[in-house]
Amino acid sequence: MPTNLIASSEGRVLHLTLDRPEKRNALLIVDCADLVAALNEAELDDGVGAVLLDASGDCFCSGMDLTESLREDAPERAAIHHELFTIGARITKPVIAAVQGKALAGGVGLVANAHIVVAADDASLGLTEIRLALWPYVVFRAVASAIGERRALELSLTGRLITAQEALQWGLIHHIAPSGELSARAFAIASRVSSFSPEAVRRGLDFVHRSRTLSPPETVEFADARRRRSFASDDFAEGVNAFFEKREPKWPSLSGEKQTL
After folding, report:
1. For the whole prediction, is pTM greater than 0.70?
2. How are the residues of the chain apportioned to helix, strand and coil, as percentages rounded to the nearest 5?
3. Domain match, 188 and 203 both
4. What is the pLDDT of residues 17-30, one digit of tens each?
5. Is the dihedral of CA 188, 189, 190, 193 positive or negative?
6. Which residues make Cβ contacts (< 8 Å) with residue 16, sequence separation at least 6?
7. Pick from 150, 166, 194: which residue ends a domain?
8. Distance (Å) of CA 64 to CA 30, 45, 72, 83
């Protein structure tokens, strides 16, 4: 079956590329399902240390494919959107996004769900759904978590585009690179992140996700329990020894043994 998602691996980086440039990488329902499946598989794959998400062509993603939006079964078929645009708050493998050109509507949802975002210096981003008499329901919370509710509200009401520089100031993206250096810069970050202890990264992201719903005293207790477990881990011992011995660590958790959170 033809797919608009290209997957490849380099080292411990899983590279996922949206590949529908002739449609500005507009997402079909099947594309969303493929992306969710690939990310869920990465979550369970000990060989993946980080995911790099990018896109072919001169547009990162223009959002949902509108040709599917007027079908009678569109609401039911679009249920996968809720899974896709909340995945950044669940997955414990780091997702790094490389954004070129425009990221619109659902494209901004993908950006907001990535843990680290590198954008080209000429990129622009916007929640443009209001132009079509729609609210960005499924991506709003992820965007608001990234930039704050008032800023997300202003973008939702105006449908305007912001520059990469403004997105950087707001915290929607983390790095800006010249367009010709975007891919290399994003891969370098993904490769670096994937080289760290997979146990520490997984526990850390799980802590971030789960602590969002805890009270301050509960968060302190949870953090203390996680910290004690990290102190007792083989990876931490290896990290400390490698530091003092001035060498690259060899993480025991890469041996294939499953680690408990």
Report:
1. yes
2. 50, 15, 30
3. no
4. 999 999 999 999 99
5. positive
6. 5, 6, 7, 35, 38, 39, 51, 52, 53, 54
7. 194
8. 11, 28, 16, 14
